[in-house]
Amino acid sequence: MGKQFSEIQNEHMAFIQKQHLFFVGTAPLSNEGHVNLSPKGYDTLRVLSATEVAYLDLTGSGNETSGHIEENGRMTFMFCAFEGPPQILRLYGTGNVILPDAENWDTYVKHFDLLPGTRQIITATIHKVTTSCGYSVPFMGFTGERETLNISNTKKGQKLENYRREKNAKTIDGLETTLGKKLNRK
Fold first, then answer.
1. 3-state DSSP call for residue 59?
2. CA distance 127 to 133
3. pTM
């Protein structure tokens, strides 16, 4: 049986800091909308307190997390132990999207080394933490980061805003993202 906590404990923080991969899950309110589960790599996640986490979000082929946060705020983070003792850790919270021109951008961006294609910072106020066994999660060794996304975003250069307008302004279900709202005001 898993355990539940109202905030991130020190042992949870230590576990999170060892992970090379985490997953973000969000969903629209509509039963007909698509649930999104997005893997995240690089050194982009920070535990800011026992009840707040943030990650540096990079330009990719979609922006589902932002659209779902705009609509309902719900999000879940999941971490799996692929090395060492088995464990799954989930953080349940309410998300917020911070764009580079937002008032509080400087408060959060100082926690990160910027990467090519930095799009936004996603923060979450955590209200529940759960752990479970992870007994069926396979062992997998980390051999390095893929640089494909960094290379792709660097190559886009001046075309990055057009790419974001085309691929990141709405979710696959048509929900407007935080970035989409900004781009549509221009």
1. coil
2. 21
3. 0.96
pLDDT in tens, 87-99: 999 999 999 999 9
AA letter at 109: V
Mean per-residue pLDDT pooled into runs of 10, the chain (186 residues): 93 97 97 96 98 98 97 98 97 98 98 97 98 96 96 95 96 97 84
At 76, give phi and psi (nearest 5°).
-130, 135
Angstrom distance (rounded) from CA 127 to CA 94: 8
Q: Is 72 helix (H, G, I), strand (E, B) or coil?
A: helix
Closest by CA position to 146, among listed 73, 58, 15: 58
Q: Can you read off the two tokens belonging to residue 80?
A: 């799996």
| Cα dist from 32 to 13, 127, 152, 172, 178, whole Å | 35, 27, 32, 12, 21
Per the CB < 8 A criterion, the answer to whether 107 and 166 are in contact is: no
Strand partners, 37: 25
CA–CA distance, 128 with 91 (Å, rounded to integer) = 6
Residue 54 is given by DSSP the state E
- Hey, is 69 helix, strand or coil? helix
What distance in Å separates the CA atoms of residue 81 and residue 34, rounded to the nearest whole number?
27
**Contact status, residue 79 vs residue 89, Cβ threshold 8 Å:** yes
